[in-house]
Design goal:
13 strands, globular, 12 helices, about 30% helix, Rossmann fold, alpha/beta
C-alpha cells in the first residue's frame, strides 16, 4: 500500500486499485524503443527465463529485468542483477547464434566497474539504489511532496487539459510524486526512465501499466518524434553538461510537444540534507570536507542550470511557453526547518511558503542576484514542422 497526500488529505493507494502490470512483450509503447548506441531497430527475443531486446545492427543485447529495459547498469547492485540474467539464460542465448554478439554485450554492459574514472559515479548510484530500494520496501519513507508539487501544478494548469492522455515520458521518474498527486493513476500512456533501477521499480508501484527504461537522461533510447510530453523535474542539474542535454531530448519529442521541468538556478544552495539535521546524521567535519559525500549533497552531479544558456540553445527549435520562479533564501530556511525537520507537510503550508516566495521575489529579490529566485519551473514547446 502506498500513501500520497492530495488536497491536504492523506489517502491510501491500495494494491488492488493499481492497473495490472502489462507484460513488456505486449506493451503498446515498446515500438517506440530503439538501440541507445546505434539508433537501430530492436528485436524482442524470448529466452529461457526472461526476455531481452537485441540490436538488429550489431547484436547488442539489452536485458529486461522485472519488466524494466536495462541499458547502463552502472551501480554494482544492477550489474549483479544483469550477470544473474545472463547466467540463468546462458543456454538460450547461445542458441541465438550470429544474431547475438556476446563480446560486445559484455563490453558495453559491464565496462563501468573497470573504468576508474566512473568510480565516483558508480558509488553515487550504489547509494541511490539503496535509498530507492528502501523506499520500495517501506524501510524508508518519503515526504508527501507538496513542497515540490504545488508550483509544478500551477504551471501544468496553464497547459492543455488533456495532457495526461498524451504519451508521457518522465525522466528521473523516482517515485513520480507530482504526476500522481495531480493526475492520480490516470496516465494511460506513461513511460518512466531513471538511471536507478530501483527508482523504476518504485514508480512501477504507482503506474503499473507504464513502460520502464533504466537509462541515463542524456541517452534515452526512443525514436524520433515518438513522445508528446517529456517531464524532467530536477533532471538537468544532475547530469553532465546540464542544460545542453535538452538537445538530445528535442528530437524524440513530437512537433508541438512539451518539455516540462524544474531546476535550481543558483548556488550555494542548502546542502543535502539541510541546515537543521543533527550531528548524528551529518557531522561538522563531513559538512566542511571537500571530499564528495552523498549525505551532504557534495556531488559532481548536483549543481544548477544556466537558464539564459538554455533559452539560447533552443532558439529556432523550441520556445519557452511558461515559467514560474520560486524561492528566496528565507523560504529555503523555513522549508528546511518546518517542512523537512518538523514535518509540517501539507498543501496549506506549501501555499503559505509560495506566498512568501512571491512577496520576497517582488521586493528583496530584486536587490541582488543572490537574493533572487533560486529555482525555475518551465514548459518548453517544440516548434511545429511547417
Amino acid at each position: 500500500m502506498h500513501c500520497r497526500e492530495k488536497n491536504n488529505l492523506t489517502f491510501v493507494l491500495k494494491q488492488e486499485e493499481l492497473m495490472e502490470q502489462i507484460d513488456i512483450r505486449q506493451h503498446p509503447l515498446l515500438n517506440k524503443i530503439n538501440c541507445p548506441r546505434t539508433g537501430s531497430e530492436l528485436e524482442l527475443v524470448n529466452l529461457t527465463h526472461d526476455v531481452g531486446l537485441i540490436s538488429k545492427e550489431d547484436g547488442m543485447l539489452y536485458p529486461v529485468i522485472d519488466n524494466i529495459i536495462i541499458t547502463e547498469p552502472i551501480s554494482p547492485q544492477l550489474e549483479e542483477k544483469c550477470r544473474d540474467f545472463f547466467n540463468r539464460n546462458s543456454d538460450s542465448l547461445m542458441q541465438l547464434g550470429e544474431k547475438y554478439n556476446p563480446s560486445l554485450t559484455e563490453q558495453v554492459l559491464f565496462s563501468f566497474s573497470q573504468d576508474e574514472s566512473l568510480q565516483v559515479h558508480r558509488e553515487e548510484m550504489a547509494y541511490w539504489e539503496m535509498r530507492f530500494k528502501n523506499r520500495m520496501e517501506g524501510i524508508e519513507h518519503e515526504n508527501p511532496g507538496w513542497n515540490r508539487t504545488l508550483p509544478r501544478w500551477k504551471l501544468l494548469k496553464k497547459l492543455p487539459s488533456d495532457l495526461n492522455d498524451k504519451i508521457i515520458l518522465e525522466i528521473g521518474c523516482g517515485s513520480s510524486h507530482t504526476l500522481y498527486d495531480i493526475y492520480g493513476s490516470n496516465l494511460p500512456n506513461y513511460a518512466g526512465s531513471d538511471l536507478s533501477f530501483y527508482a523504476c521499480r518504485l514508480t512501477q508501484q504507482v503506474f503499473s501499466n507504464g513502460l520502464y527504461i533504466q537509462a541515463p537522461a542524456e541517452k534515452i533510447p526512443l525514436k524520433k518524434n515518438s513522445i508528446d510530453v517529456i517531464v524532467a523535474y530536477g533532471v538537468f542539474h544532475h547530469i553532465p553538461d546540464h542544460e545542453d542535454n535538452i538537445l538530445s531530448l528535442l528530437p524524440i519529442l513530437k512537433p508541438g510537444g512539451y518539455i516540462i521541468g524544474a531546476d535550481p538556478l543558483m548556488k550555494p544552495r542548502i546542502p543535502r540534507p539541510g541546515l537543521f539535521k543533527t550531528a548524528e546524521t551529518v557531522t561538522e567535519s563531513q559538512q566542511n570536507s571537500d571530499e564528495i559525500d552523498l549525505r551532504t549533497g557534495k556531488s559532481p552531479h548536483n549543481e544548477w542550470i544556466d537558464w539564459d544558456n538554455l533559452t539560447k540553445i533552443i532558439q529556432g527549435k523550441a520556445k519557452v511557453e511558461h515559467t514560474l520562479y520560486e524561492y528566496g533564501p528565507l523560504r529555503s530556511i523555513l522549508v528546511a526547518l518546518f517542512y523537512n525537520r518538523m514535518g509540517i507537510q501539507s498543501l496549506l503550508f506549501t501555499r503559505i511558503m509560495s506566498l512568501i516566495d512571491r512577496v520576497w521575489l517582488m521586493t528583496f529579490g530584486h536587490l541582488h542576484k543572490s537574493l533572487g529566485p533560486a529555482a525555475i519551473h518551465y514548459a518548453i514547446r517544440k516548434k511545429d514542422i511547417k
